[in-house]
């Protein structure tokens, strides 16, 4: 059975949605990143970048990075990919989400919620870039149901994964300025597969405290020099 290494963060969320949408049987294996489980030799053998998610397929194939996992599973199953003429466009939006939406949204959250000191320049830069990228997504959705038009694809799943965190980065009033994104997220939330993907949070009690152990595990640059 396919092994899915997950947390409740945006990137694993995308993969959980695909697995549920495709009806693929999988073994959900929690990786408690606040306890540092992503740095164990066993997990590093699967993902040397010490990030979640990752999968190990039935034949032993190992795939890490959420966009790579989505693309791998979509090609394997032949599901949630548009017709061939749209392939390049799908790849563009999938990589835009991976290289822009995720990093800038994540950094906006980091510098406003978790950084030990508030650095005005960093906050301004990452909030600006998070807004800029999300506005591009919102504009894309202004005249189409899904990111690729009439077809629900892995790009929508990728956007949904990070879209759940947009208000954390940009504030609850962001939905007034991103109405098309909100419509997409609501449409996916109504899908039974999304409910099943979100139910993963009931399977394991992840550490919730952001204490010294969690900070050093999640933000290795903050480790003491002695360590």
From TrEMBL:
Residues 83-214 form the GST C-terminal domain. Pfam families: GST_C_3, GST_N_2. It comes from the Bacteria. Signal peptide: none annotated. Residues 1-81 form the GST N-terminal domain. Coiled coil: none annotated. PANTHER family: DISULFIDE-BOND OXIDOREDUCTASE YFCG, GLUTATHIONE S-TRANSFERASE-RELATED. This is Glutathione S-transferase N-terminal domain-containing protein. It comes from Variovorax defluvii.
């Amino acid at each position: 059975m396919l092994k899915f290494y997950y947390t409740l963060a945006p990137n694993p969320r995308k993969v959980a949605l695909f697995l549920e949408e495709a009806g693929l049987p999988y073994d959900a294996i929690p990786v408690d990143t606040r306890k540092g489980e992503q740095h164990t030799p066993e997990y590093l053998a699967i993902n040397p970048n010490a990030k979640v998610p990752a999968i190990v397929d039935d034949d032993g194939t190992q795939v890490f990075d959420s966009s790579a996992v989505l693309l791998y599973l979509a090609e394997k199953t032949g599901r949630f990919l548009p017709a061939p003429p749209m392939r390049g466009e799908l790849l563009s939006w999938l990589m835009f989400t991976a290289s822009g939406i995720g990093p800038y949204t994540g950094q906006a959250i980091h510098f406003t919620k978790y950084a030990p000191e508030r650095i005005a320049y960093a906050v301004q830069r990452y909030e600006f870039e998070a807004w800029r990228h999300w506005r591009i997504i919102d504009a894309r959705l202004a005249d189409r149901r899904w990111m690729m038009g009439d077809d629900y694809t892995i790009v929508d799943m990728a956007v949904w994964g990070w879209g759940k965190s947009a208000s954390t980065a940009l504030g609850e009033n962001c939905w007034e300025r991103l109405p098309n994104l909100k419509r997409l997220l609501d449409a996916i939330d109504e899908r039974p597969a999304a409910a099943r993907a979100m139910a993963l949070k009931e399977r394991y009690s992840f550490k919730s405290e952001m204490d010294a152990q969690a900070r050093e595990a999640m933000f290795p640059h903050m480790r003491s020099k002695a360590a």
